[in-house]
Amino acid sequence: MSGDGAVRGRGTGRRPTTGRPESGRRGAGRLAPARLALAALGSAARPALAAVLVLGAVTGGLAVAQTALDRGRTAGIRAELAQVPVSTRDPHVELRGLPVSGPGSMAGASDEVAAQWGATVEPVDAVRAEGPAAAASVLGPGRALLRFDAADAVPPPGVARPDSQVFLTLDPLFATAASVVEGRAPEPLEEGADVAEVAVSSEVAHTMEWPVGEVRHVAFGERLALDLLLVGVFEARDPGDGGWAHATAALEPALVPRGLDPPLIQGAAYLDPRSLDALQGEGLDSSVELWLPLEVDRVTAGDLPALESALRSGLAQPLEVALYDGGFRPASLTSTAPEAIRATIDRDAALAGLLELVATGPIALALLVAALALRAVQHRQRPARVLLRRRGAARVVLAALGAAQGALLAALAVLLASIAVLAPGAAEPAALAVPALAAVLGATVVGGVAAVVGLESPTGELARRESRARGRLARAAALGLPAAAVLASVAVALRAGGSTASDPLLVLLPLLIGGSVALLALVGARAVLGALARPARAARGLVGLVGVARARRDGAVGALPVIALAGGVAVTAMALVAVQTLDLGLRQAARAAVGADIRVDDVYLGDPALDALAAIPGVRAVAVVEESVRADLATPEHDRQVRVVVADSAALLAVEGARPVLAAPQPGGDPVRVLASSALPVEVGTEAELDGVPIVVTGIGPAATVFGSLRSWVLVDAADADALGLRRTPGTALLAIEPGADPAAIARAAREVVGPDGAAVTLEEEAAARAADPTVGVLRGVLVATPGVLAALLLAVVLGAVLPAGRSRRQLGAVLAAFGARTRDSLGLGLVETLPVVAIAALAGMLGGLALSLVGLGAIGWDAITGAEGVGPTGVATAAALAALPLPLLAAPAIVAILARGVPRSRSAAILRGAERGD
After folding, report:
1. What is the pLDDT of residues 187-243, one digit of tens each?
2. How far apart are CA 394 and CA 85, in angstroms?
3. How many angstroms from the chain centroid is the CA of residue 383?
4. CA angle, corner 411, sides to 410 and 414, nearest 5?
């Protein structure tokens, strides 16, 4: 072989010859690293291409995953904000009274309207203009709305109409927001006039049975009485415009339950906004609302921290509104958006920590594959490097040569990944920065190390020195790496559940634990193979003896494949546990939100509706949840307002099943026993007062439950509601169904009972809706894809370690065939050579996966990711995931067995003669 000729004559002091006089060679003695690097890459095209493809795939995959996650996070925060009621999401302020008419600027309004409303809206616009730029970028121009309290709308004498009330409303942008579909737009109200022209929406007109041209009389106390003449019916140009959400019953009428009587109908009646001058007067029962529209489509996930801070600081600015009573009313804007953004920021922090934890494994394995490919490249260059070394080339020069080769391959890989992901727009350019840097640095270091390690081993005293140095390094790694893994695990465990974004310990944890279990696998493999060597020598036949001997050689299976197998199994197990934990958390959050098999909501659930729900075939039990008005909760340390929720304890436990989310309080206690939300500053045994009535907390429930967006709540048994003097309204029914019943069919029947104004959701529907969240979808896709990526990389590692040794196995097969070995002996040889090492690596990897799952995943804020409380990797989930690990690792023994397949005896002599010639 060519490599043998380059190093022949070692230890004799003579220069190796190449068959040509040295003086006849051009450039003899010169070091040309770049030329030599290119020549080596050209002679090892296949391993170089493998390194480029693997590094490019991992680089591009990480960039695509990062971009998809960013897009999913943006879609998730927009969906989250879209679920927040617009009336509370927009920074707003509501003041009792009438605004002072005065000129000013107002976006979207005519000059006549701005002449009356501008002075009211300008202070709100100033808050936006003078506030932080991050807030101004997502806030629209100031809006205003004047609304009178509900007043009975009395039809003309002798005309039968449903009982109804109107909210007399003035919107400065009504002309641009509404389109009149019947009649005409109202004219401005003149001062002192008794008749006012109004317009209502088509749904309000239909429900109130109010035709165009009909007059209804309204009286606002003793100061204002008007005949409202309906002159127009309108529809919204854009029903999604947030301005309609600020107006009570603007597009859809509100139905107020009145027991057994028909509900009271309420709707908004719009005056021309230029009527503000005619309404100036003190003591009118009205309120003005000012707000800045929050444009959800402008919000991006990357700007969340700055946006939250900007909104909080911007909302804190003082605002003075001129009211008709002759003074300025100091006020400030309020919004629930910062709280929703803060929850998303916490979720993003947990997501970032989880992805950093999971992504470390594929990156490390990709670098191992690159190391194997670069080692193959260096193997082709080995004779030339030895020659350069004998001519006095320093090891640093050879290391630079290997580093240059690694950097070149990594650069080609990054270029390939950039073309693949940027051309179709699969990833953003910025997303390539981190994985590209990791690929280039990693390949550069690995290339340099491979160049030095691949040199011919020295002899004599120098060899003994280097052997002792390697031994000391191995012992230091065997002691230091597990110690570092333990310290990192303790540090991570002490911060469990906290914000883990960009936590360097989480990035290092898979490397430390994976490296520790890899060392364990190497030590264990050496011990097991040593134990097998003695019986193999004593046994009859050469299969066991030769197989164990080859397995104990570094070149047979190698340290890198063992490290890759152990670390890959550990990260794969962790990814499987993460998927199970995510699904478990989403299911638990859905269970808390539904409360039973089916949740039914309606404005008012009277006895007829409850009886109809209980009579649906398949319904086993029904529990009613009644909401009360807010009450003052006074504890020894805190005072705050809470919403009191009432339910029958026995019925609630009956519908919740074997694992109740809400441990309902027992009735009849003194003081009254209650269940409190975990969002409240109380604990079990806390004694407090609820509107002056003594209570004791007997249980803590999750903040997110069937009570919707309500988080600060107290649950009281129905038997104790009267003792607290609570006035309540039944609005939610929880249904438990019989085993085997169809929840979807029962939900459809429940929707027919409550009608179009109600809703019914099953546990499966709620779980599917939570799983459809864009951020959750991307996260689950990454976690599910990780085992597949690791399996492909592990296969590449195995092939990179096994295939180069195919020639020696072929020659060994010829030797065995010459001695009469059968095909099954050669196959058994391949299994004996690899199966013990693979089994030990798999076992060590499972132990590492268990440690990573309990420590690493235990530090992730799963509550923020899933929306459920108390979620974390459990022993059952961990054991199930580890037991469900596939066995693709047996591909390594199978590949070796195929390569070691039997050689026909007729060809064995020819193969051996070719080996002697170096063929």
Report:
1. 999 887 889 999 999 999 999 999 999 999 998 766 678 899 999 999 999 988 888
2. 71
3. 51
4. 85
Sign of CA dihedral 741, 745, 747, 750: negative
Tokens 């959800």 locate to: 296
DSSP H or E stretch at residue 180: strand 178-183
Is there a contact between 317 and 330 (Cβ–Cβ < 8 Å)? Answer: no
The partner residues of 197 in beta bridges, in order of sequence, read 229
Cis status, amide bond into 671, omega within 30 of 0: yes
Query: What does the alpha-carbon distance between residue 640 and residue 628 come to, in Å, rounded to a whole number?
Result: 16
Distance (Å, whole) CA 690 – CA 714:
9
Q: Name 52's Cβ contacts closer than 8 Å, sequence gap at least 6.
A: 409, 412, 413, 416
Q: How far apart are CA 378 and CA 400, in angstroms?
A: 13
- Cα(913)–Cα(484) distance, integer angstroms: 52
Q: Is residue 19 very low, low, confident or very high in pLDDT (cuts 50, 70, 90)? A: very low
Phi, psi of 876 (to 5 degrees): -65, -45
Q: Do residues 453 and 4 lie in contact, with contact meaning Cβ atoms separated by under 8 Å? A: no
17 φ/ψ angles, rounded to the nearest 5 degrees: -110, 160
pLDDT given for residue 552 in this prediction: 60
Percent of the chain with pLDDT over 90: 13
What are the residues whose beta carbons fall under 8 Å from the beta carbon of 148, sequence distance 6 or more?
A: 167, 168, 169, 220, 284, 285, 286
Beta bridge partners of 287: 96, 147
Q: Is 630 helix (H, G, I), strand (E, B) or coil?
A: strand
Element containing residue 381 per DSSP (H, E): helix 337-390
- Helical H segments across 423-503, by residue range: 433-453, 460-494
182: phi then psi, degrees, rounded to nearest 5 = -150, 135
Spacing of C-alpha 82 from chain mean position? 18
Q: For 99, phi and psi rounded to 5 degrees?
A: -75, 155
Q: What's the CA gap between 218 and 210, in Å, rounded?
A: 14
**C-alpha to C-alpha distance for 189 and 396, rounded to whole angstroms:** 91
Torsions phi, psi of 709, nearest 5? -75, -5
Residue 597 DSSP class:
S
pTM, two decimals, is: 0.71
Structure tokens, 134: 């991050």
DSSP assignment of 75-107? HHHHHHHHHS-HHHHS-EEEEES-BPP-----T
Per-residue tokens: 833: 């050579």
626, with CB counted inside 10 A (0-12, 13-18, 19+), is buried
Q: Give the C-alpha separation, 677 to 660, whole Å.
A: 15
- CA 336 vs. chain centroid, Å, equals 22
Q: Do 912 and 818 touch, CB atoms closer than 8 A?
A: yes
Length, in residues, of the chain:
919
The pLDDT, as a whole number, for residue 113 is 92
Which has the closest alpha carbon to 136: 293, 245, 326, 325? Answer: 293
Lowest mean pLDDT among 268-272, 384-388, 692-696: 384-388
Phi and psi dihedrals of 736, rounded to 5? Answer: -105, 135
Q: Which of 242, 243, 315 is nearest to 273 (CA)?
A: 243
Report the alpha-carbon distance of residue 859 to residue 761 in Å, rounded: 33
Q: Amino acid identity of 318?
A: P
pLDDT at 173: 94
The Cα 774–Cα 780 span in angstroms is: 10
Sequence-ordered list of residues with C-beta below 8 angstroms from that of 445, at least 6 positions apart, any chain: 403, 406
For the chain, the maximum distance between any two Cα atoms, rounded to a whole number of angstroms, is 127
Quote helix, strand, coil % in the chain, to nearest 5: 55, 15, 30
Q: Are 730 and 626 in contact (CB under 8 A)?
A: yes
3-state secondary structure 859-897: HCCHHHHHCCCCCCCCHHHHHHHHHCCCCHHHHHHHHHH
Phi, psi of 457 (to 5 degrees): -65, 135
